[in-house]
Known about the structure:
The chain has 7 helices and 8 strands; from the N terminus they run βαββαβαβαβαβαβα. By secondary structure, the chain is α/β, with parallel strands linked by helices. It has a single domain (6-195), classed as P-loop containing nucleotide triphosphate hydrolases (Rossmann fold, 3-Layer(aba) Sandwich), CATH 3.40.50.300. The chain has a 6-stranded parallel beta sheet with strand order 2-5-1-6-7-8, sandwiched between helices. A two-stranded parallel sheet has the order 3-4. α5 links the parallel β6 (124-130) and β7. It is globular. It is found in: Cytoplasm. Its EC number is 6.3.3.3. Its cofactor is Mg(2+).
Amino acid sequence: MSQNKRYFVTGIDTDAGKTLASAILTQQLKADYWKPIQAGEPTDSDQIRQLIDSSLVVHPEGVMLQHPMSPHAAARRENVQITADQFTLPETSNTLIIEGAGGLMVPFNAQGLVIDLAKQFEAEVILVSRNYLGSINHTLLSVAYLQTHNYPIKGIIFNGDPNEDTESFILQYTGLKCLGRIPMMDTITADTVNKQKITNL
Length: 201
């Protein structure tokens, strides 16, 4: 794995498992972690710190919002103006895992979507898909948006109980690579995160 890679982790919905996937990727790649926009507490950065080696770097959030809702709505409530040009990538020579907020097309202001930041940061997109009724539709729509708008997609991580019919169709239809599968875990700890492997990066 070469250095100076940037991966933008996003999901087909808010609860797809972005933070867990980001923790596994950060731990496995010995990467840095960064959350550009955080809405609500506990923060994803705090969760990541509990799940990875203490020697790994978790950068301060770009924007901190108090309300656990879409960033554009939280910002409006808190009289915060969020603009794309206010985000500055953390300085690092290491691989950087960037975690989005909410699902793929969550807005951070009246015009901008969180996924826009992936292109701004020149990061490859890793899409987290969680198997549930409707996830094929949500995953294909997410991939279609990314491909139509020329985002570089590294691949898909499937999270939760496996579903061979769902996963094989998604991969065949999109032509994307499965980067790995995260099993359903009763408890999520640093030990269980360390045991997971994303094998196809």
